[in-house]
User: Which sequence fits this backbone?
């Protein structure tokens, strides 16, 4: 494809028109235009801009950058392929766009670049239309094909490139509880409608780590974890609506959940959990952790108010936890379990302390730091290392 034809086809991109929002794409267009016109000054300027943008992108070849952009596209046609729908009417246009972008990626401008005394631009490899479709089918498209963890902040989805995912060997105790969470998650991945999950109990027992570790389990490649701050609960319905129909399965994770009595987000979450007129999609579940069983903070003044149906109001607010289909307690360890855990951690740390002495010190530590939990045990061992 000659450069004049290539430029005409680039200007007529349709399915992947969003490339025009990328500064790097504008830079390479300017370069090709300048070389086609034989405008030496403009070509030199465009060349510098192009390679600067390419370097900023983290790629060293244009074809690799273009391929990454196609995989990350969330346009209607990639969505239809990723979700396994019937071939879209945009299929032929998508094929034409990929052929055009492939021609751009493999364009050999060496003679012109040599004439302008510019460094060589090595042509890349052709882009495969069928290969692109296969990637959409197997891994999805858009931002959810690239990242597995996200933050929902101020109504915006922010990807987390390197999430904190504890490995299973780092999780201590509570095997039965973790098994319940994993079982529900496996059902979600299998496409079944599942319960929302509340993990409640003592601090330091590993509730949050249990949820985050799900991303590291084998066979959970389609799982996505979206952490939601309590301030973002009111905007959750919009987020849930945007996730419906996607091939991936989503856990909306609310950590350390607790409400004040007059908190407006309480009502929003209550509606989501109960199921309003708009049902929760099958590929979405809500997991929350809390140090409180009832989730809603109460004061003595609230119980001593002059409301006629005060007891019913109190009962309604304290029953929010009951709207989670699965409620899993993470309570403090019994003394024997705590000491067994201390022994295990001491062996891992290579400590050579007689068992009786280790137990005595652990009990003293527990007396000064109330709460027999894995965190307390780890802090005790750290004080000995």
Assistant:
């Amino acid at each position: 494809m000659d450069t004049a034809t290539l430029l005409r086809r680039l200007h007529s991109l349709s399915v992947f028109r969003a490339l025009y929002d990328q500064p790097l794409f504008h830079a390479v267009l300017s370069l090709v235009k300048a070389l086609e016109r034989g405008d030496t000054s403009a070509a030199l300027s465009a060349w510098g801009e192009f390679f600067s943008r390419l370097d900023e992108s983290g790629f060293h070849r244009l074809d690799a950058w273009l391929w990454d952009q196609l995989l990350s596209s969330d346009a209607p046609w990639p969505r239809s392929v990723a979700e396994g729908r019937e071939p879209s009417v945009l299929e032929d246009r998508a094929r034409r766009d990929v052929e055009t972008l492939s021609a751009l990626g493999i364009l050999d401008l060496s003679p012109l670049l040599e004439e302008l005394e510019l460094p060589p631009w090595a042509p890349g490899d052709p882009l495969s239309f069928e290969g692109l479709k296969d990637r959409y089918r197997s891994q999805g498209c858009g931002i959810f094909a690239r990242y597995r963890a996200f933050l929902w902040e101020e109504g915006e989805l922010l990807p987390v490139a390197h999430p904190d995912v504890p490995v299973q060997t780092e999780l201590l105790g509570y095997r039965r509880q973790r098994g319940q969470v994993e079982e529900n998650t496996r059902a979600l991945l299998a496409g079944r409608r599942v319960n929302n999950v509340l993990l409640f109990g003592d601090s330091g027992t590993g509730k949050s780590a249990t949820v985050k570790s799900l991303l590291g389990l084998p066979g959970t490649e389609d799982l996505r974890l979206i952490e939601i701050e309590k301030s973002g609960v009111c905007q959750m319905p919009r987020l849930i609506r945007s996730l419906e129909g996607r091939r991936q399965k989503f856990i909306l994770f609310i950590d350390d959940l607790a409400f004040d009595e007059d908190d407006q987000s309480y009502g929003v979450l209550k509606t989501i959990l109960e199921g309003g007129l708009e049902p929760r999609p099958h590929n979405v579940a809500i997991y929350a952790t809390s140090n409180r069983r009832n989730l809603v903070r109460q004061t003595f003044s609230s119980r001593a108010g002059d409301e006629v149906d005060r007891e019913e109001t109190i009962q309604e607010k304290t029953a929010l936890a009951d709207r989670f289909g699965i409620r899993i307690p993470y309570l403090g360890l019994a003394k024997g379990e705590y000491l067994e855990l201390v022994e295990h951690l001491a062996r891992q740390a290579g400590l050579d302390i007689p068992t009786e002495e280790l137990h005595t010190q652990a009990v003293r530590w527990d007396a000064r730091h109330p709460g027999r939990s894995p965190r307390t045990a780890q802090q005790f061992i750290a004080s000995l290392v």
About this structure: DSSP finds 18 helices and seven strands in the chain. Confidence is low (pLDDT under 50) at residues 299-304. The two ends are 68 Å apart (CA to CA). The first helix runs from residue 3 to 11.
